[in-house]
Amino acid sequence: MDKCDNTPVHGTKVPFDPGWNDPPQFSYSAQQTTPNRPRNFLNKRVAFPLSGTGSTPVSSPPANLPPMPVPMVPAVPTLSTQIISRNESELIEIDSASTLKEVKDILLRFIDSGDLGSKGNEVKKRINVMENMWLNGKLNKSIQLQMKELAYALRDDQPARADEIHKSLMVDHVSSVSIWMSGVKQLIYHCIARIELLDIDKQESEKCDTE
């Protein structure tokens, strides 16, 4: 009786069904490998750069942004362009006697010109009342400084400026200035009328020159 060779032949189908615990049969000839294919190492750790000279790009600001506004430094007003408040006057040192003399001389100059007519004596009485209150300490430093500015405005032919200071004094210090301020107000009206007359004379003079 011939011996049966049960060795399977490669490439041939097994003539019997494998058992449940037989290893699977692989066909190695059907597998194709891709040579030189890089492996994807998903678990590979990236080293952290130790130096601060990395190549991280620095984001630049957008080119269409408007320029930054330059802060404007407010100009400090001078005494000739502002009305001195009560708090500010306390910080300014003045010679009360010399300031009174300067104010009185400027105001009396308008009276002595004779342009006020019969009103000149009444205005002079009001100025004398102001002088007595000034010497007796009844006019604070704020009133004295503002009267100095008012006198300067009349001297420089700026009646609008003088009237602004006059109104400020009547609002802030009415109890101290109301007795004599009417005389100063007459001087302001006189200054306004004098400037208007000078303008009229100037216009007539220019008209005559053109003819």
From TrEMBL:
Which protein, by its recorded name, is this?
Steroid receptor RNA activator 1
Please report the stretch or stretches of sequence annotated as the SRA1/Sec31 domain.
Answer: 66-189
Protein origin, superkingdom: Eukaryota
Q: Does the keyword Ribonucleoprotein apply?
A: no
Keyword Isomerase on this protein?
A: no
Q: In the UniProt record, which is one GO cellular component term?
A: nucleus
Keywords carried by this UniProt record: Receptor
Q: Which GO molecular function terms does the record list?
A: transcription coactivator activity
Upper lineage ranks? Eukaryota, Metazoa, Ecdysozoa, Arthropoda, Hexapoda
Query: What are the GO BP annotations of this UniProt entry?
Result: regulation of transcription by RNA polymerase II
Segments of this protein annotated with the region Disordered: 1-39
Query: Polar residues: which segments have biased composition?
Result: 24-37
